[in-house]
Amino acid sequence: MARKPGFGASIASEVVEEFGSGDVPELPTGDVLASRGKAISKLGSDVMYEQYEWIDPVLCRPSKQNARRYDELTYGDCAELIESIKSEGRQRMPAIVRRTDDPDVPYEIVAGSRRHFAISWLRANNYPEFRYLVDVQKLDDEGAFRLSDLENRARADVSDIERARSYKMALGAHYKNDTAAMSERLGIARATIYRYLALADLEPVYVSAFGDPKAVTVSHPRAISTLIKGPDDVVQRVRAEAVQLGLEQEALKAHQAALLSPVEVIARLKAAAKPPRPTVVENRSFTLSGGDGAQILTYTKPEKKKGMTILLPAKLSATRSEVESAFQVLLDELFS
Question: What global pTM score does this model have?
Fold first, then answer.
């Protein structure tokens, strides 16, 4: 019975389809993307060419330019790949590496972090015979970044914020902060680069509000940009709500409960941006309501021998930042 192709083989077939299954015309040495396509198009037989090496994965280090955070990879992220390599008996698709000046760690991973994790995990878990298949390329820093970015674009497990941070790094390191040059080299629209840069610049307090950084997408900075760059009082309320959201998300994670969705987070940030609205009743009392119209507190002025009263509803739906803002309005009223 013919063996069913594994996960690594399916990736290789996808790359072959992208670059073509035939020989690619000889191109300048710097065009590593075409070189990569030519090499992968010949994978599928058991013949390994001189540019490939089977090595111990401890000889490789992750690249700081790669959008994927190697230190955040888990077994769950790579479980399917691990099982595929185990069933195939070897790694099918080579990772791309370049040489370093460190004799103890002579290779840097340009593309293939998950494959490196998978082989390392197998070797540490009763499969010491597995070795890491690498394609050693001569790449400068900018070339390594471009190739890494190309390989990561279609990866669902590379989050928008990871890609955004790599773009911000590359803009300064490789393109002298010239977005037009970066756009041309990467082959993507400048508008797309701007959206990723806006995400990279999103303050940590707002990223934490979403609970999981990987849940933050390039659309979210635009959704809250007017809130976090508005008047000082609005920014203070929104920031306070973001802090509260971050605490709530941490509590949910601690109890292994579902996190608040990005839609809920954005709705609460928008509600916090709206100041409490006082409603005066017979010149003796007023009610403060939140952004959604729900009552926060009712204040009644002192009368004769009766003192003032501050009444909060039994079931308070307002957020902490809305309640704090309501009391601030009340204090302003009392001491005006």
Answer: 0.66
Q: What is the mean pLDDT of the segment spanning 51-73? A: 90
Within the chain, how many helices (H) and strands (E) appear? 13, 9
Q: Alpha carbon of 141 to those of 64, 67, 120, 147, 150: distances in Å? A: 10, 14, 25, 10, 14
Give the C-alpha separation, 176 to 24, whole Å: 32
Residue-wise pLDDT for 211-250, tens only, equals 999 899 999 999 999 888 888 888 988 999 999 999 999 9
- Give me the residues paired with residue 96 across strands: 111, 135
Q: Which residue in 44, 112, 115 sits closest to 86, CA to CA?
A: 115
Write out the H or E segment, with its range, that includes residue 288.
Answer: strand 285-289
User: Residue with structure tokens 């009223």?
Assistant: 333
Q: Helical H runs in 175-211? A: 179-186, 190-200, 204-209
DSSP code, position 129:
T
The candidate with the shortest Cα–Cα distance to 195, out of 184, 185, 205, 183, is: 183
